[in-house]
Amino acid sequence: MTDWDTDELSAIEEADELHIAPRRKNGTLRAPTTIWVVRDGDDLYVRSMLGAGSHWFNGTRARHEGHIEAGGVDRDVSFVDETDPGVNARIDDAYRGKYHRFGPQYVDPMVAPAARGATIRLEPR
User: Fold this and answer.
1) Distances, alpha carbon 29 to alpha carbons 1, 35, 65, in Å
2) Do 11 and 70 contact (CB within 8 A), yes or no?
3) Helix, strand, coil proportions of the chain in percent (round to 5)?
4) Can you give the residue ranges of every domain in the chain?
5) What is the CATH number of domain 6-124?
């Protein structure tokens, strides 16, 4: 595993949107989907607002790897499921803090149980 460098973490944290492209079983990338991203310490997290039923989230299950772009950072990543309740509580707070200006109609679904069950830590490859 490779660690994020400080500049990458800051750039991605400051970006409102992240483009995520899961890798298919045959090795090709799916078309990128635009989603939100948050930072917790030295880790980056994404969630599916629709929970495990979303197309892009299901795509992460094929190989648990793909590609992201955000804030000028362009990296191959691994997708690691995050299930720790303490970490998920901090991620809830991060989503509320970063995206509050979009209003509860968008933020509340990101901190709902379905989205919590579709939380992924991004690890650089």
Assistant:
1) 21, 16, 9
2) yes
3) 40, 30, 30
4) 6-124
5) 2.30.110.10
Q: How confident is the model at residue 27 (pLDDT cuts 50, 70, 90)?
A: very high
Handedness of CA 121, 6, 100, 21 (dihedral sign): negative
Q: Tokens at residue 118, please?
A: 């579709």
Structure-block tokens of residue 114? 């379905």
Distance CA 13, CA 8 (A): 8
CB 15 within 8 A of CB 46: no
**What SS3 state is found at 77?**
strand
Task: Please list the residues that pair with 38 across neighbouring strands.
Answer: 45
- Which pTM value belongs to this model? 0.95
- Region 95-115: mean pLDDT is 97
The span from the CA of 16 to the CA of 80, in Å, is 21
List, as one string, the DSSP characters of 9-35. Answer: HHHHHH-S-EEEEEBPTTSPBPPPEEE
Three-class SS state of 120 = strand
The residue to which tokens 């400051």 are assigned: 14
